[in-house]
Amino acid sequence: MRLDKFLANMGYGSRKEVKKLLKTGAVRVNEEVIKDAKKHIAIEQDQVVVNGEEVEYKEFVYLMMNKPQGVISATEDAHEQTVVDLLELEDARYEPFPVGRLDKDTEGFVLLTNNGKLSHELLSPKKHVPKTYYARIQGKVTDDDIEKFKNGVTLDDGYKTKPGELVILKSDEVSEIELTITEGKFHQVKRMFQAVGKKVTYLKRLSIGPLLLDSTLDLGEYRELTEDEVEKLVNR
Fold it and tell me: What region holds the RNA-binding S4 domain (predicted)?
């Protein structure tokens, strides 16, 4: 790969900015100062150092975030804070984007990556990738609701959902449940409960496909997926 393209991909600015950077002598390849933007490097073998700091090349980045309420699942927004705004510069430079949406007032697992192919597969309705949510519900959730969700419920716009697996953790005036669904319609969990006459008061996503949200992550925190987790995601 050309050196200027490599550095631009790694977040060191536009090609034009990278050329200026190279002219200052700030870039070394295998300990030799390189000023030629057209120089080709072997990205897996060659050591590239910018201002004394080694550049570690990664084509793809995979991040698990525990999204707080009030933050939107987008890369940029003129008025709202986004999940990308919560990233450190060293991770943001890979230009990851959230895979699918998690409502502004919903907490929990958001996956961010710059791997468009994987993102497309995880979001494809044909792939039936399960997502599990924990929710608190205003009203008593019953076995009857379990049956209704198992058969799919009709939403306010007439759409009938695919089967959902509802588990009751606590049935009371305020119930606690876990729900696993394989599609991601707008406000789907809230609208499914609305369809059976109940209201979601708190919602958190716990898992995507084979991956569980890391319980050590506080709200707003994130970490890179381990190699094992990436493997599970890719080969699910």
Answer: 1-60
Q: What pTM did the predictor assign?
A: 0.82
pLDDT for 140-182, tens place per residue? Answer: 999 999 999 999 999 999 999 999 999 999 999 999 999 999 9
Q: Which tens digit of pLDDT belongs to each residue from 87-124?
A: 998 888 888 999 998 999 999 999 999 999 999 999 88
Sign of the Cα torsion 25, 28, 33, 34 reads negative
Domain range 130-208, its CATH number among 3.20.20.210, 3.40.640.10, 3.30.70.1560, 3.40.190.10: 3.30.70.1560
Provide the 10 A C-beta neighbour count for residue 196: 16
The conformational region for residue 85 under phi > 0 = left, psi -120 to 50 = alpha, else beta, is alpha
